[in-house]
């Protein structure tokens, strides 16, 4: 009934989905480009040539264990922008279904106790009305059964946009940005959920907080990731 009043929008073209009742237009099914092999075995970035690690992971010490991204960033950037800033939280349903289908083996091998979305700072959350990473995590929960831990990780620092920052500046920007909201964390293996993977600085800082809290294995899944060499 709600779709009759507020019809679902296609995550690719943003028009009302055709045919009715689907999550994506039949003509848009190939609109996103899945990350295909070869990819970095550590961060999941698409590699332009056969290798095991991207240049970033060869030169950086990550705190997270390993991660994967679903789409190549160039093919999904506009969709993710609308998902984050344009109120298109309904896209999460399709994204979650796709992650369950194409990254399901990764999730099963990891066998996580929970999914943990990267949080927004309170002021940004109030302005936006929702956290896109949490919407994505809940959709993945729907299709995989892995529970989402809402509110476990909190962002207590209003970090600035990091697009133009160097790796060192990103690290400084995110220092002490997150805290755990509980005195005791009984989880041993988690998958952190976020929208985009670039350098991994945000995921590393969140992973550091969880490592300090006693979590042994910290993986991640993002909607999109860039390419590397």
Report on the structure:
With 229 residues, this protein is an alpha/beta fold. It has a four-stranded parallel sheet. A two-stranded parallel sheet has the order 1-8. The mean pLDDT is 92. The longest helix is centred in the middle third of the chain and has 13 residues, at 73-85. It has a single domain (32-228), classed as 3-Layer(aba) Sandwich (Rossmann fold). Helix 4 crosses helix 7. Strand 6, helix 9 (201-212) and strand 7 form a beta-alpha-beta unit. The chain has helices at 2-5, 55-59, 73-85, 91-102, 104-110, 122-128, 132-144, 167-174, 201-212, and strands spanning 46-47, 66-72, 114-117, 153-155, 178-180, 189-197, 217-225, 227-228. The protein is 35% helix and 17% strand. The chain contains nine helices and eight strands.
> Taking all residues together, what is the mean pLDDT?
92
Radius of gyration: 17 Å
Q: What gap, in angstroms, lies between the N and C termini?
A: 48 Å
Shape: globular
Which consecutive residue ranges, at least 5 long each, have pLDDT under 50?
none
CATH fold-level label: Rossmann fold
Largest sheet at a glance? Answer: 4 strands, parallel
Specify the structural class.
Answer: alpha/beta
Q: So what's the CATH class? A: Alpha Beta
What is the topology, as strand order, of the major beta sheet?
2-7-6-3
Number of strands: 8
Q: Please tell me the total number of domains.
A: 1
- The CATH architecture would be 3-Layer(aba) Sandwich
Task: List SSEs in N-to-C order.
Answer: HEHEHHHEHHEHEEHEE
Helix amount: 25-40%
Number of H- or I-type helical stretches:
9
Strand content: 15-25%
């Amino acid at each position: 009934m709600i779709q009759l009043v507020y019809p679902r929008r296609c995550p690719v073209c943003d028009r009302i989905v055709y045919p009715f009742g689907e999550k994506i237009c039949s003509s848009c099914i190939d609109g996103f480009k899945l990350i295909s092999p070869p990819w970095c075995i550590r961060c999941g970035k698409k590699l332009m040539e056969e290798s095991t690690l991207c240049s970033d992971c060869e030169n950086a010490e990550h705190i997270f264990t390993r991660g994967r991204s679903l789409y190549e960033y160039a093919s999904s950037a506009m969709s993710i922008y609308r998902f984050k800033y344009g109120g298109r939280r309904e896209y999460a349903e399709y994204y979650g279904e796709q992650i369950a289908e194409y990254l399901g083996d990764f999730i099963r091998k990891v066998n996580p106790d929970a999914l943990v979305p990267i949080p927004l700072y309170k002021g940004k959350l109030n302005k936006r009305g929702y956290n896109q990473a949490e919407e994505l995590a809940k959709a993945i929960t729907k299709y995989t059964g892995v529970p989402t831990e809402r509110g476990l990780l909190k962002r207590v620092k209003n970090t600035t946009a990091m697009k133009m920052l160097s790796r060192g500046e990103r690290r400084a920007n995110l220092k002490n940005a997150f805290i755990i909201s509980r005195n005791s964390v009984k989880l041993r293996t988690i998958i952190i959920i976020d929208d985009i993977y670039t350098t991994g600085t945000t995921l590393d800082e969140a992973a550091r907080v969880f490592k300090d809290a006693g979590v042994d294995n910290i993986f991640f899944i993002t909607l999109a990731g860039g390419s590397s060499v």
